[in-house]
């Protein structure tokens, strides 16, 4: 080691001397932090003006554009009972159209994404729900039939159209 390897102030090697060590590089100052974001405003949505405490009358309910599938259930059972408990699906749907022609809504007569008129799709859904309830079965494709339970237990109260 040479004389330049030692500190003149403390006689220690420069590698261990505090005087001979270079100053540590200070990291650049951090950019100022943005203020924290406020949490989004959450409001409880109310369905009517009365629920919000307002004295204004509630808006009337929008009329339905299509007949719900449950409205077809009693008619399907009645038509099957009149047919002796079993009928071809196309014949039954034709008879259903004749009986409910005045009751069907404008949206029922539109074609759905499958190309079938919407009321027929709703009637098929009603048939499936009746089958799930144990009142109807399909003994073969294209035929709808009432079960014994469907013949006896459920007698729909509908006008004879």
Describe the structure.
This protein is mainly alpha-helical. It is built from four helices and three strands; from the N terminus they run αβααββα. The protein has helices at residues 73-82, 89-100, 118-132, 148-152, and strands at 86-88, 136-137, 143-146. Strands 1-3-2 form a three-stranded antiparallel sheet. A hairpin with a 5-residue loop joins strand 2 (136-137) and strand 3. The longest helix is centred in the C-terminal third of the chain and has 15 residues, at 118-132. The model has no long low-confidence stretch (mean pLDDT 79).
Low-confidence parts, pLDDT < 50 over ≥5 residues?
Answer: none
The gyration radius over C-alpha positions equals: 40 Å
Structural class: mainly alpha
- How much beta, percentage-wise? 5-15%
State the helix count: 4
Percent helix, as a range, is 25-40%
**Overall mean confidence score, pLDDT:** 79
- Taking the alpha carbons of the first and last residues, their distance comes to 119 Å
Write the H/E string, N to C: HEHHEEH
The profile of the biggest β sheet is: 3 strands, antiparallel
Number of strands: 3
Spatial strand sequence of the major β-sheet: 1-3-2
Large-scale geometry: elongated
Q: What oligomeric arrangement do these chains adopt?
A: single chain
């Amino acid at each position: 080691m040479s004389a330049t390897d030692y500190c003149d102030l403390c006689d220690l090697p420069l590698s261990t001397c505090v005087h001979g060590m270079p100053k540590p590089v200070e990291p650049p100052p951090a950019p100022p932090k943005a203020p924290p974001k406020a949490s989004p405003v959450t409001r409880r949505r109310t369905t009517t003006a009365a629920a919000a405490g307002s004295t204004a009358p509630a808006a009337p309910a929008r009329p339905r554009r299509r007949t719900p599938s449950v409205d077809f259930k009693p008619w399907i059972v009645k038509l099957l009972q009149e047919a002796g408990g079993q009928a071809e699906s196309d014949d039954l749907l034709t008879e259903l159209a004749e009986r409910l022609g005045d009751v069907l809504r404008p949206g029922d007569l539109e074609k759905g994404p499958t190309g079938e008129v919407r009321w027929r799709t709703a009637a098929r859904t009603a048939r499936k729900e009746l089958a799930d309830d144990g009142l109807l079965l399909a003994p073969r494709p294209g035929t709808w039939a009432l079960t014994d339970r469907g013949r006896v237990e459920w007698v729909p109260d509908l006008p004879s159209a």
